[in-house]
Structures are given as C-alpha cells and as structure tokens.
C-alpha cells in the first residue's frame, strides 16, 4: 500500500484541526462543570475566593483530559471523515484510485504520534499539575492529604497527633494482615520540633490503635525504654491506609517503573500500578484503534449515511470501548487477568474488529 505524501499531509492537517477543536470544546465543558462543583464544595469555606476556585478548576483539567483523549481522537476522526465525505472529497479520492486504507493510514499514524506525545510529554506535565490540585484541595477544602508515600527506603506514613504529628517508617509490609516490619516512628510537637523516637520490630493496626512489638522509646531527656508492646492511639482505619496510596495520576510516566519497584521491594501490592503503566504504554495503539473505529461508522458515501446516525453510533462505540477497557483493567487489578492482557486487550480487540469490518465493506 503506497501512501501519497501530499494526500497524507492534507488529511492529517484536517484531522489535527478537528482534534484540537474538539479537545478544546470538551475541556471547556468539563471546566465549567468542574468549577461549578468546586464552588458548591467551597460554599462552606468563606476564605476560598473565586480566583482560587478557577485556578483549581484549571489544575483539575489534565486529570480529566487524559480520560477524554480517546474520545477526542474518535470524534475528531469521525468529524474529519464526515467533512471530507460531505464535500465529496472521499469520492474524488476513490475515483482517483486511492483505497480506503490509503486515507485511513495517515490518520492512524497521526493518532499514534498523539499517543506518544501524551505518554512522553503531556502525562509528566499533567502529573505535576494534578499534584498541585490535590495540595490546594487539602489546603482550601479540607480534603485529607495522602497519608502514605513509598520510596527506596520503604513506606512512610504521616498522621496527626494530639500533641503534633507522627511519622511512621516501615522497611517491609506483610499484606496478608497488614503487619509493618522494621519500624521507626518520629514524634513532632505543634511547632514541628522533634520530641522523641520509637523503634520496633513490627506494628499492627488494631481497633483504633497501633500496637508495636519489641519497642524502644528514645527521649532526648531520658534513658531509652524497652517495652514488649507499646500502643499509640490513632483515628486511622485499614481502609484509610489502603485508599491513601499515591494516585497514579500524580506519578509521571517516567517515574512509574521506579515507583513500582519501590512498592515491590516494600512488599506492597503492585498489580494496579502495573496495569496503569501498561495502559499508558498501550495508548498509541488504542488511539490508532479509535481511528479505525471511526472509519467503520464514517466512511460510507453521503447518500448512505445520516449525520445523527453516525454521531449516535460513534458515541455508543466510544462508551463501549471505555467500559470494556475499565472492565478489563478491573479484572487485571484483581488478579483475574494477566496484567499485559488486561491493559492491551481493548486496543487489540477494537483494532482487529474494525479492520475486519473495513475489509468486508471497503475495497482492498
């Protein structure tokens, strides 16, 4: 299949104009609704002005925008094919001897390029912006900050204490009963000054308290005290801890492999993060599949297609892909499907299905 360079540039130019226009429109709609929701949440916080709300709305956009990307590519390709068909340009291309594959292929390559730009450039920038949103959400709307971070040194947990703040560090985590091992606990007063330190072999969370075993409490003004068990009151529950791990959207694509290694070295569950990472890697293929999906509903000659039917078919297909992808990722995250299969299956299924349809309805 030979692709004409001039035709390719023309088709890609039309597609990119549609893509940027539709993406801007979708983000504008999302921004309006997000600002309205933030204003509702800020109604009880008199110190939160409209400027803060507008800025938070902007910081929230990248997170939602990444979810909308496949839809934007699908709708842009549909609009591009429909526009070319309406102006009888597709008919002219067919009459000139070009097959459907020759005017679909340039858009496939353009979509894959968009996917590469997304995972290599846009995602790292978006992750830092999402982090800013979460920090502002915690500062202005009272949303709890994440309690846990994971690094090469192990797991770190921060918790408020009646006298200040407590930071717990664990070398390893036993997932079966959430037993933390290799403990170091640092206590700080309200001024942020270090007051004492506790070292222990292990700790478990039991009904509103941490229970440390083989603990040594070190106070700057006293001799170290050894204790078989040492308890510390807490408002945390196991669910709070499990839900407070770093949001994947706050971690750059380039940092995900290292973060996954840190989780594994600490003994924490890595499968959901692995599924997320593989889904990012599959993004170029998914966007290429969305182009082929758009072609199945948009390449019919004008006399055979109706704009409303095309739009409804495209929207329905887009949501079907979204739900299939979410379902397979959920299966992967719960160990019911291999990670690779759960992350890549949607792209492969949509691509093969669309190619089969086009082979049966188009020439060549």
What does this structure look like?
By secondary structure, the chain is α+β, with helices and mostly antiparallel strands. It folds into two domains: 5-142 and 269-361, no CATH class; 148-243, no CATH class. It is 60% helix and 18% strand. The protein is built from ten helices and seven strands. The chain has helices at 5-42, 50-86, 89-95, 100-141, 238-243, 256-266, 271-281, 283-298, 307-333, 339-361; strands spanning 148-151, 154-161, 164-174, 179-189, 194-205, 209-218, 225-233. The longest helix has 42 residues, at 100-141. The model has no long low-confidence stretch (mean pLDDT 86).
Topology, element by element:
Layout: H1 5-42, H2 50-86, H3 89-95, H4 100-141, E1 148-151, E2 154-161, E3 164-174, E4 179-189, E5 194-205, E6 209-218, E7 225-233, H5 238-243, H6 256-266, H7 271-281, H8 283-298, H9 307-333, H10 339-361
Antiparallel strand pairs: 1-2, 2-3, 3-4, 4-5, 5-6, 6-7
Task: Supply database-style keywords.
364 residues; 2 domains; 7-stranded antiparallel beta sheet; 10 helices; 60% helix; elongated
